[in-house]
Design brief:
single chain, about 140 residues, alpha/beta, Rossmann fold, 6-stranded mixed beta sheet
């Protein structure tokens, strides 16, 4: 008797990633448990934007390699979780003035083959919903 297997559902099973798709990462040791990527992907879908943010579980010893290689990858940027927000500073080619003041970075944007750091989650960001909207509006929305 043959058993029919159901297809495995992924977070964006109905989407197709093309060369034009803007890819973003959410980098952290336990990125898959951070619901921020789900909220951002909902905004992406509801706005019919050709983009996707993918959680990337990265250990500390792989962090430098992962971020440094973003410069030549298809990834357009990444949200950086708290455990790496100071470490990422050494990998940035430029920083906004808020990164300079707070000495940490929570979002990296690839511009050509250079990485620019931003700090979005300051004292005035009160929730993950607000943070997801800021990321979508500032970096993802066409």
């Amino acid at each position: 008797m043959s058993e029919t297997l159901k297809p495995v559902e992924t977070m964006n099973a109905d989407n197709v990633i093309s060369k034009e798709t803007k890819l973003f990462g959410l980098i952290g040791e336990k990125a898959g448990t951070n619901r921020l990527f789900v909220m951002i992907n909902k905004l992406i879908k509801s706005n019919a934007t050709d983009a996707m943010i993918i959680p990337m579980n990265i250990r500390e010893d792989d962090f430098y390699f992962t971020v440094a290689n973003m410069k030549k990858s298809h990834v357009s940027g990444a949200y950086i979780e708290k455990e790496f927000q100071e470490s990422v500073l050494d990998l940035l080619d430029s920083k906004d003035e808020i990164v300079e003041v707070y000495n940490r970075c929570d979002f990296v944007l690839k511009e050509g083959e250079k990485l620019k750091g931003f700090l979005l989650e300051k004292n005035d960001v009160s929730s993950q919903e607000e943070l997801s909207s800021i990321i979508f509006e500032k970096f993802i929305k066409d």
